[in-house]
């Protein structure tokens, strides 16, 4: 998983460079080492309440996915592709709770945010498909790679509250975000993330091979 996450970080760095973002400037992609995800702020990719990709978002996707493809298919010193251990490339949409003019907690608000989050993640996935159909993948065989892509929306069950990420269990209470809400919380909550899920079966097979090899040496 660390290797796969490292490939994500590599792709994000390559995409930022190709998009001419200098170190320290605003970057289209940011790698979160704690959550092992690449994230972008939705504010730069979508207008408020919209799931239509902005031109800047399309340009960023066109840079990121070829870089990610190359990073995942590159064979390391041991000849293993990271793609060999990939179960899914997950694209998730997240929104803020829109607390400004509404009650802190509303199931109706949560529902609409869930739909919007799913639509935004699907819009990113659909545009990757358009890149395939338009032949913008170059010499890359994208269709087998695209089979790993999955999209979902998380509404604001993983929004930020006082700088901390909220979990689903927070919403069992009447006030899921007690205390002071930081000004930066909404901006951090509005994001699209790219993550990886490991193929556990292949990992276990690799572990078994290593164990048998060690046993033979004994």
Give structural notes:
There is one protein chain. The model has no long low-confidence stretch (mean pLDDT 82). With 218 residues, the protein is of the alpha+beta class. The chain is globular and about 60 Å long. The protein has seven helices and seven strands; from the N terminus they run αββααβααβββαβα.
In brief, what are we looking at here?
The chain has about 220 residues and is α+β, with helices and mostly antiparallel strands. The protein is built from seven helices and seven strands; from the N terminus they run αββααβααβββαβα. Strand 1 and strand 2 form a beta hairpin.
Main features:
218 residues, alpha+beta, five-stranded mixed sheet, two-stranded antiparallel ribbon, 7 helices, 44% helix, globular
Q: What is the element layout, followed by pairings?
A:
Layout: H1 2-18, E1 30-32, E2 37-41, H2 42-45, H3 55-73, E3 86-94, H4 107-133, H5 142-146, E4 149-153, E5 160-161, E6 164-165, H6 185-189, E7 191-198, H7 200-217
Parallel strand pairs: 3-4
Antiparallel strand pairs: 1-2, 2-7, 3-7, 5-6
